Amino acid sequence: MTMTTVREIMTAPVVVVQADDGVARIAATLDEHRISAVLVVDGDGGVVGLVSEYDLLVTPAGPTAREVMTTAVVSVTADTDVEDVRHLLVDRRIHRVPVVSGGTLVGIVSRADIVALLITEWVCPVCGESARGEQPPASCPKCHSTGAFAMQEQPPGP
Ligand SMILES: [Zn+2]
Asked: What CATH number has the domain spanning 6-116?
């Protein structure tokens, strides 16, 4: 079975805030992007913390990200096996983990990104286009072939 790495499923670029950003700005960022937490980075793009909706509920009067953020943030690299990330999210009961390279934030992986891997992937017999879903598409979105899509047994390798 081919190993799927974080690089293949991570979301990038990542929505971030700075440690000096005020709570109101953080709340607006969460609302605008419809996310439940945001990473806090320093001037060099290094991850220094994470502020979740929960943190804002607990400490709504905190003036800036620095005062309300969680600083014990576990990170992974783009080459980390997705299976390891799955264990990390379960064991630590966290919802997302930042992806760093050389100390700089390059992406983020959430529970939803990993759950999406469980959706069956289908491959067009004509052009090789792939699509995810419970059922194969009626026709290929790329070459419009109506040939039967075949179930992809393994995630595509790098
Ligand atoms: Zn096709």
From this structure: 3.10.580.10
